[in-house]
Structures are given as C-alpha cells and as structure tokens.
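agent> fetching stored inputs for the coproporphyrinogen III docking request
agent> found them:
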Amino acid sequence: MNDTFLRACRGEQVECTPVWLMRQAGRYLPQYQAVRANVDFLTLCKTPELAAEVTLQPVDILGVDAAILFSDILIPVEAMGMSLEFTEKSGPVLGEPLRNKSAVDKLIVPDTEDDMPFVIETIRILREKLTVPLIGFSGAPFTLATYMIEGGSSKNFVHTKRMMFQNSRLFQYLMEKLTLMVTSYLAAQIRAGVQAVQIFDTWAGAVTPYDYRESVLPFVKKAIAELKKEGVPVIYFANDCAGILHEVKKSGADIFGIDWKIDMGDAIKKLGKKAVVQGNLDPCALFLSKEEIEERVKDILWKGETARGHIFNLGHGILPETPVEHAVALVEAVHKYGRKG
Ligand code: CP3
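agent> prediction call returned; pasting tokens
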C-alpha cells in the first residue's frame, strides 16, 4: 500500500511529495472516452463496476498517489429530490430551481446507504482493488446551493445572491439542510471505506469576503467540525481563494486545496507554516512543453517546502483537451523532484 498521500495529509515526513489531479478520471483519457461511448454520464456514475473502472484508469495510466471516487457533486442533489440531467452544451441542468420555501421544504436529506447504494458499492469494489488511498468527496453547501437555486451553472449567481440578500432566512434554511446532507453523505462514504474526503467549494470565490464570512464559511465549517470526528483527513478546496484565504483558514480543514490564481508561496504565508496545502499548477500549464512543465513543478514544490505538508495537484480540474503524455510527465516530475533530502 502506497500511503504517502495519507502521511502527507497528516503533516508527517514523506520520502516524496504525493500527487493526484482533480478530475483525473475524465474525458482527456481515451480509455474514459471508450467507456463513455456506451453509457451516459449519470449511468456511469450509478454503475459501480464502471465507476470503479474509470476511477482506476488514472491510477494505472498516470501513476498518481491517490484515487478519487468517480461520481459528481450533483448526485446527492438528485437524491434530495431535484431532477438532474447532463447536457452536452450547458452541463448540468436541475429541474425546477429552488426559489421559494415550499421548494426547500420538499428537499429530503437522503440516506446514502438506501438512496445512493451505488456510491457505497463503488467504494467497496475500489478498496479491494486499490493500492493507493481512496478519496471520497462532496460539494460544499454553498457550491451546491448555487446549482440548486440557479438550476445549473451560472455566470453572475443573480438568483443565489438575490435569495441570500432578500430572503436570508430561506437561504439559511437551505444551507442548513445542505450542511446536514454533506455531513451524512461524507460520513457514509467514510464508513464504506474512503480514507480521506475532499469538499469542493468551486464557487466560494464568487461572493465578497464579507458574504463568504457571513453566509458561506459558517456552514462548511460546521460540516468539517462534524467530519473531523470520523477520523479521516478533510481537504477543503475553496476555489478562487486568494481574497478569502484568511477566512478559509478558519474552516478547520486539515488540508487546504489552493487554486492556481495565487502563488503557492503567498498562500502558505497567509495560511501559516503549520498548514498542509494541496495544489496548485494551472491546468493549462499542461499545454506547455514537458521541460516547461518540469520548471513549473519545481517552482511549486520548492514553495510547498515551506508548509508543514504539501500534496501536489492542479489548481483546478484537468481539462478535456489535455495531452495525456503531459499529465504523465507532470506526475513523473513531481516524483523526480519531490524527493526529500
Ligand atoms: O475528480 C475526479 O476524477 C472524480 C470525478 C468528478 C467529476 N466531477 C466527474 C465529472 C468530480 C470530483 C467532480 C466534481 C464536480 N462536479 C465539481 C467540483 C469540481 C470543480 O470542477 O470545481 C463541479 C462544479 C461539478 C459539476 C459538473 N459536473 C459540471 C459543471 C459538469 C459539466 C462540465 C464538465 O466538466 O463537463 C460536470 C460533468 C462531469 N463531472 C464530467 C466528469 C468526468 C464530464 C461528464 C462527461 O463525461 O461528459
């Protein structure tokens, strides 16, 4: 068992900086495309044998030090009672966006074992096959709320912010329900066997620092506090974190996921040297030459040395256009230059 990732999560000494990539199972891999040619995305997420197969692909092809469960942050939103579809053009579409109290009243807090048994089964299959740790994940309450209120992806989050500002009680009520869901969903993944969890807060940076502190942070902080009782490392990826890192620090996460828009050295200065960080190569840097990728990897590794622990990753999800050999070169560069001593 390669446990470098878990030891780095705990801030322990490691022989080599571990690396995995957000969205490492996906369309840039021909092997993923081959599986997807026969099934739609949601069916793939809900078929344990196939979800396990695509989870394993990047572990074999890239040689990463951790696997992440193949699923989507919106899977439990569907289990809460909203209809979900993925379209080729606009991504996820949630039926009847949440705009009033009765819509929020109708949402259930699902029981993962009963309502999403495929997630549990996928984790069981993976734990039997994997030789690297398995990461479970959930969307953060706020990021999930944006999709549910907007009905899908959004540019300006007009409906979300309008609810936040004009009907703060309803917004809070929704965020409380989502916090319960996130906590119980991740606790169930941990019971089934995941060895770390990551909370994706993709839209954390889309609100002002004031609103992040008042309306976003308290809920994710509560979920993290509950999850820490489960005894596995909790990674919090707050995207576009540069302007809110002093608040993100208060979340209580064990590991801070850093996006690519901030220099890793600056992020560590803001979080303090006792922090364990994860990140933060620009996904587009994988369009550079292999030599240039090495240089950027070295720069981030060198800065990562100033933290208590560093897990190498991209600063956001890998893009479908990425050349596979360049992703392989990235992992090799981390393993070559991330050696201690
Ligand atoms: O990291 C992994 O390899 C595990 C799988 C994973 C997926 N989505 C698979 C996926 C994870 C961890 C996610 C998280 C996710 N999903 C986030 C948070 C991370 C982030 O990127 O900020 C968000 C915001 C979503 C919602 C979502 N899912 C969108 C907006 C889209 C459409 C855009 C896109 O990238 O296609 C998806 C679809 C999706 N999720 C795909 C995959 C592999 C593509 C589906 C396909 O095969 O066509």
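agent> quick read of the result: The CA atoms of residues 46 and 126 lie 14 Å apart.
agent> awaiting further instructions
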